[in-house]
Amino acid sequence: MQLRVKKGSSTSRDPRAAARELYQAIHDPEAALSIFYCSPDYDLAALGGALCELFGASAPLIGCTTAGEITPVGYLEGSITGVTLSGAGLAACTTLITDLRNFEFARGDAAATQALGQLRDQGLKPSGRNCFGFLLADGLSMQEEPLVSAIYRNLGDIQLFGGSAGDGVRFESTHLYHQGRFHTDCAIFTLVSSVYPFLVFKTQHFVPSAQKMVVTGADPARRIVTEINGEPAGLEYARMVGLEVDKLTPLIFATYPVVVTVSGTTYVRSIQKVNDDGSLTFFCAIDEGIVLTVAQGVDLVRNLEEAFSAVEQQIGRPAVVLGCDCILRFLETGQRGIRERVGEILAANNVIGFSTYGEQFNAMHVNQTFTGVAIGGG
């Protein structure tokens, strides 16, 4: 029993031509799941219409806009890329969650329960041994934390990963594709059952330093931290990294993110900006009482190579990796002149994915992280 994987991409700027080239590369009438990632610069109405005509509205095709695409040849911008998974030992159930800005936990519970029920209706027995979850979300909704928490708490030992849809570097509007058209203000949850070996994993090139701080004032709903160690958050963070507040730039925030440790595992929390009132806006929700640790960077290239080496040791060489890679990592690779090398590593390990506005890993929403699932060929 073999897993069939079809990958492809198009750099055509014409939406109909791009859709046609993608269709020719990845279409499989027996597909269990097809996924695409596209530049937000396309005419999305035209692209969505063309994809619907080619694949069909009922095809198991999902996708989203990006902050960069991970294609069979590595990183690209302004393109569309995708992958189709087929095989007798593969099944997938997908649910659209709408009105994400008014999200309630009960709707996350329902999405997970519905997906589990659909697999059971096919005679399958979903568990962590044979299933994984994949979550795409509106990257501007600021609802990823309750969304991923609500879904994950219903999955038992099934692991979950995903990414938040992007809009380049504009941060204006993100779109997700489901059942023949693009949607906004939504999330797509997919539960995949596989007899083929797979591994859900994450990696980040940051480790905790000895500098710890306690959040003493926060507005989690707006992802704002007002106080750290009882002091204005921006002032105290600047002191911790040895700078003046006026020296805090996006590059400094990307270089010195903070991490939280949960059950021995570290998760990255990145800062977006310092506000006029001295507070800090994060890319993730931060609660009062949380202990944050300033992170120190390690070699991104070596970290990524080691991550894929560990994957291969556990499941063999992957036939495909579905990957979600933070926009901040993408920007860093450009600043450091290593984007081509990182793209080569991703291509060599059969990664198809996108640069995100944040990543999901089990019950956590994180930043500056690569999350994904590696699937063996059988």
Question: Nutshell version of this structure?
Answer:
The chain has 378 residues and is α+β, with helices and mostly antiparallel strands. It has helices spanning 15-26, 44-55, 105-121, 144-152, 233-240, 250-255, 300-315, 327-335, 339-348, and strands at 4-10, 31-38, 61-65, 69-71, 74-76, 80-86, 90-97, 131-137, 159-164, 176-178, 181-183, 187-194, 198-203, 206-219, 224-228, 231-232, 258-262, 265-269, 271-274, 280-282, 291-297, 318-326, 351-356, 359-361, 364-366, 370-376.
Overview of the molecule:
This protein is an alpha+beta fold. Helix content is 26%, strand content 39%. Strands 14, 15, 16, 17, 18, 19, 20 and 21 form an 8-stranded antiparallel beta sheet that branches. A hairpin with a 2-residue loop joins strand 15 and strand 16 (231-232). The longest helix has 17 residues, at 105-121. The protein is globular and about 60 Å long. The relative contact order is 0.17.
